[in-house]
Amino acid sequence: MSFVMRPSGWLTGLSVCASIAMADPATTQRVTEGPPPIVLTETALQVHRSGLLVDGHNDLPWRIYDGVGGSLDRLDIGRPQPGLQTDIPRLRKGGVDAQFWVIYAPPESARDGTARKIALEQFDLIHRMVRRYPDVFEFAGTADEIVRIHKAGRIAALIGIEGGHMIENSLDTLAEFYERGARYMGLTHSETIDWADSASDKPRSGGLSAFGERVVLEMNRLGMLVDLAHVSHDTMRDALRVSKAPVIASHSGAYAVAAHTRNLPDDVLREVARNGGVVMVVFFSGYIHPEGASAMADYFEQERALKQRYPDAEQFETAWSAWKEAHPVPGGTVHTLVDHIDHIVRVAGIDHVGLGSDYEGASKMPAQLEDVSGYPCITQELLNRGYSEQDIHKIMGGNLLRALRRAEKVAREWKD
Fold first, then answer.
1. Which of 189, 233, 340, 393 is catalytic?
2. Which end of the chain, N or C, is more open, meaning fewer C-beta atoms within 10 Å of its C-beta?
3. Which one of 59, 191, 213, 271 is the catalytic residue?
4. Residue tagged active-site, from 165, 251, 260, 289
5. Is 230 tagged catalytic?
């Protein structure tokens, strides 16, 4: 989760990529920023359908949990939901084959002792969602299960944890989360915690503390991927030094393209390659657009400062809305996102890049990627830039499957 939207501010609008493919002039005119809009070809659609698309990060569970109290009756994603970026019809249209549904708890939950409770309630929500739509979803815990579920025509549902504060400094809780289905955990979210520094807060450990290193090794032992999204650059470097298994960045970009501290600098990209990991490129314009990165530079710091200044919730919302209005994030285009893929490929190699959208956790997406139906536009632009079908399939999901298989192998060897 990046640029958090309140339930009343959920985005509306559908992806324009398919409409452009049908040469709708009115739709085409809506996409005016930057290069010409992507026009889908049958070749791109064939390449897209023949791959296995894994998205690394979608915050729908929090939207349902926080927005409608976790009620799947009140928010039925089996039907079109124009107030969301995600529903089943658009997941199908976008060709999503495997989705990491993300569990999020606000950073303040670490201070009031509710982080684990909020996480467990969302585990339950995700499992209920999978059971509610058995013809659409099936829960996956391994790379082989993802492949099997894809071949059966269903969407593999996986779970990621967005922030180590939810384990409440307990390795037992970390193991509990794995048993409930978590296959990755971001070490921090927007605030530095006792054992790991965040990209959006003051450092405390200079990266990972000794306990933080134990957390990484325990994740290796369990077979849970270490996620570098949201952590400081020093935390990234420490995690890569310590981890015996591939790491991921579930929704991040390249710092050299857009200089936000959430993104990975080139030295870290090279270490990710040596580690065998994968950077799953985020779609949020505030992290991938160079001007967006500037607008978002002190976003979380400003939010914390305004919460201190305005303890009254209504006053805070008014001040916070005014700040965001004064610091707009440019949207960019599909080309903006693929610029990050290009850079990561140049520095780390084709085997170390994937996709991690951050749908339902970000308020500004590039044109033609406004919702989960837009993924084929990325495939088209990759073809336009000369990527082969084999390499596109690696980016779509092959690289993540390889990293997950390796993490599973490390865990088996550990137990042996």
1. 189
2. C
3. 59
4. 251
5. yes
Q: Could you tell me the end-to-end alpha-carbon distance of the chain, in angstroms, rounded to an integer?
A: 36
Dist. CA 316–CA 302, nearest whole Å: 11
Q: Which CATH architecture has domain 10-289+329-415?
A: Alpha-Beta Barrel (3.20)
The pTM for the full model equals: 0.91
Lowest mean per-residue pLDDT among 88-102, 186-200, 305-319, 361-375: 305-319
238 is catalytic: no
pLDDT digits over 48-107, tens only?
A: 999 999 999 999 999 999 999 999 999 999 999 999 999 999 999 999 999 999 999 999
Calpha distance 76→80 (Å, rounded): 8
d(CA 108, CA 119): 13
Phi-psi region of 215 (alpha: psi -120 to 50; beta: other; left: phi over 0): alpha
pLDDT tens for residues 349-398? 999 999 999 999 998 999 999 999 999 999 999 999 999 999 999 999 99
Whether 251 is catalytic is yes
Residue ranges covered by each domain of the chain: 10-289+329-415
Respond yes or no: is residue 189 known to be catalytic.
yes
Q: How much of the chain exceeds pLDDT 70, in percent?
A: 92
Q: Which of 97, 213, 339, 358 is catalytic?
A: 358
Catalytic residue, from 55, 87, 162, 213: name it: 162
Q: Name which of 246, 168, 224, 233 is nearest 206 in CA terms.
A: 233
Check 150, 165, 230, 260 and give the catalytic one: 230
**Residue 198, pLDDT score:** 97
Partners of 101 in the β-ladder: 58, 159
